[in-house]
Amino acid sequence: MQYSSVSPQWFLPSLMLTLIRPTMFPVLRNEDLKEMLESNKESLKLEAMKRVVGLIAKGKNASELFPAVVKNVASKNIELKKLVYVYLVRYAEEQQDLALLSISTFQRALKDPNQFIRASALRVLSSIRVPIIVPIMMLAIKEAAADLSPYVRKTSAHAIQKLFSLDPDQKEQLIEVIEKLLKDKSTLVAGSVVMAFEEVCPDRIDLIHKNYRKLCNLLVDVEEWGQVVIISMLTRYARTQFTSPWKEGAVFDENNEKTFYDSDSEEKKGQIEAKPYIMDPDHRLLLRNTKPLLQSRNTAVVMSVAQLYWHLAPKHEVSIVTKSLVRLLRSHREVQYIVLQNIATMSIQRKGMFEPFMKSFYVRSTDATHIKTLKLEILTNLANEANISTILREFQTYVKSQDKAFAAATIQAIGRCATNISEVTDTCLNGLVLLLSNRDETVVAESVVVIKKLLQTQPTQHSEIIKHMAKLFDNITVPMARASILWLMGEYCERVPKIAPDVLRKMAKTFTIEEDIVKLQTVNLAAKLYLTNSKQTKLLTQYILNLGKYDQNYDIRDRTRFIRQLIVPSEKNGALNKYARRILLAPKPAPVLESAFKDRDRYQLGTLSHSLNIKATGYQELSDWPAVAPDQSVRNVEVIEPVRNLPSSHTSSYLLVENNIFDKEHHTSKGITISSRVMTATAPKHLFSITNQMKWQT
């Protein structure tokens, strides 16, 4: 081995340190840590707490040390006390009885001069999940909400959620604290108090009215996760307070400009005039202040702004989020998955947004299967007459992929393109027929299933394809594909009268070894051929029905008995036999090939419910736009002009006079002269008269 790039002066000491480290820093047992925590030396206690917190960080259980740790909660060493509080926050809920013994210490710590100690004490206090201390927690939260430190006020907002989950009956008092904290102008507090609002009283929109504009203006400076919470809340708020910018027939006119030609209005006197849409200034304020956040480095913030524009912005402004969403596709695959899900939903309604960035959704060989499938979904949504040839060429490459699940999804996408764009239906069908000779069984099976669905849309034109599939039937082994071909033979048996009976003959030979789904379709094929071509297939049908009568699967036995009673005439079922043809050979509606994301827009973008396509616990639905906007004056804040205070120097001089510093007993001519000189230099004019009057009295 060569170490030419490593300097020996640096390499040897590091190697020695590596060899010595196990002896220099031995792994201590719990008994050793207890001894260190109970020693009289602060340095040993601090070292022990560092090791204990290190154990917690590694996920190891350190609950046995709770009695020894809690003794140090009253330590005067700030660093040690911080570490003790970190430990207590982790284990206070598990060791509630021991934590309660130190509750007086926590209460004293709430008055500590150090803001971090006050915040840590409140955090520990709120972590003790004992109903008996609810009044103490409530009092501590109220005091912390009025603390001078924004960090402590932020911690009080976090404690509100813990107290509410412990005792929901405290809701009214907690709402009062939330209302007070919502007025806080600190960006450190804003995100936490909105989170508490969402947890405790998300329906109290009236608490937001007076703070709406302040939250919009503070949004850029709030920490990232606070931005996500505030944007989500403001999205719900805006849907209840502003009118829809998507009204059909309405003209978007932000500047409220009148039309230039008056003659146009004369021609449309008989028609209902479409009033120009004038956006509420507060609505515009929200959109304007969230737009810069599209450049955020936090993907959750970008996604939040994107969903806000999707749900609130005029349609012609939504496209500004496109570049930011495409930028997120360079991130980790977990982020890609969520972003692609949202893009898939958006691309169904507005294809034009992402069409210029179509190449960004081309599949890479390094992509995971779920990422490939989502990109395939988006490409299918973006397909139109102009770009379909490019997309189909891309799909031809994907079909050859070694990933079978992805290749099958590609064939389904080709089928959707053929359904949506009639100009390429024949081309897609011919391409799928060629895939029937593929060596990969999965590709062949999926091709058969898709061809079956496409043929249902226009069966009269493609009898040759049905014949070709019948010829390949012996080589196809996938049960679903064989069942699909048998279904096609039975459904269109009158169009292939010579081939269908022969396929039934082959199935009679292998009936006992086929899969259940194939057996069911064989019974259906036999019944349909019995009704349409009984001369050739009567004996075959009876033979297959006899085989099915004694099959091991009860579904097949039941189906066989039902079919026999339906098609074979007898004295008992004479009335039912008349309707056999109408039941079995009834025209069936063609299947609709739709996107899996078609109905996901009923959930708010970026939410867990949207990702899972099911309503998750805690999901809050977006309300519909109001027909008439509520009174916007509720968001007006009365600004009380502060009384002009005197400058500090002036105030001090004024206080000298107020406190009778110039009392006659203590005055000397020298003192008055000095005081007069000071006041002349610093005091305002209305104080000169007081000074002169005192001079005259002296």
TrEMBL record:
Alphabetical UniProt keywords: Membrane, Protein transport, Transport
GO biological process: intracellular protein transport; vesicle-mediated transport
Pfam family, one: Adaptin_N
Coiled coil feature spans: none
Domain (Clathrin/coatomer adaptor adaptin-like N-terminal): residue spans on this chain: 29-568
Major localization class: membrane
PANTHER family registered for this protein in UniProt: ADAPTOR COMPLEX SUBUNIT BETA FAMILY MEMBER
Name listed for the protein in its UniProt record: Clathrin/coatomer adaptor adaptin-like N-terminal domain-containing protein
Organism: Lates calcarifer
